[in-house]
């Protein structure tokens, strides 16, 4: 009777242990997928983007709107500079805080500094490259 009880207890413990850890592993994988997939960067629409030059400094300003249905965090906005179609320079900034559905947040990308301006360019493209 003692050996049978020990075997039954051991089997029950093993089954419970397997169930618990497989459930925990499934939850962890689900959370990892949610973080790595993240909100689509296409859910952020940029508008009113323009380049400004003041006192030897260059900035790119604009507005970012979340057109999706979920809040987005850590939105990275990047400005790529081109000269005759060839890439010559790049600067970026992050939006602060969270951007809720339908919300708009203004951004400013500071490009270089007074003593070190961005490379000579004739065009630029601004895009959202990352979000969580």
CATH 2nd-level architecture of the largest domain: Sandwich
CATH class of the largest domain: Mainly Beta
How many beta strands in the DSSP annotation?
8
Q: Considering the protein shown, what is the CATH homologous superfamily of the largest domain?
A: Lipoprotein YajI-like
The radius of gyration computed from the alpha-carbon positions, rounded to a whole number of angstroms, is 26 Å
Strand content: 35-45%
Average residue-wise pLDDT:
83
* CATH topology group of the largest domain: Immunoglobulin-like
Q: Return the domain count.
A: 2
H/E topology pattern: HEEEEEEEE
Low-confidence stretches: none
Q: Could you give the order of strands across the largest sheet?
A: 1-2-7
Termini separation: 58 Å
**What is the approximate shape?**
elongated
Number of helices: 1
Counting copies of identical and different chains, the oligomeric state is: single chain
Helix proportion: 25-40%
Q: What structural class do helix, strand and pairing data support?
A: alpha+beta
What characterizes the major β-sheet?
A: 3 strands, antiparallel
Structure description:
With 132 residues, this protein is α+β, with helices and mostly antiparallel strands. The chain folds into 2 domains: 1-37; 41-130, Sandwich (Immunoglobulin-like). The protein is 27% helix and 44% strand. The chain is built from 1 helix and 8 strands. It has one helix spanning 2-37, and strands at 44-54, 57-66, 72-73, 76-83, 86-94, 98-99, 104-111, 123-130. The strands form 3 sheets. It has a 3-stranded antiparallel β-sheet with strand order 1-2-7, with no helix packed on it. It has a 3-stranded antiparallel β-sheet with strand order 5-4-8, with no helix packed on it. A two-stranded antiparallel sheet has the order 3-6. A hairpin with a 2-residue loop joins strand 4 and strand 5. The protein is elongated, with a radius of gyration of 26 Å. The termini are far apart.
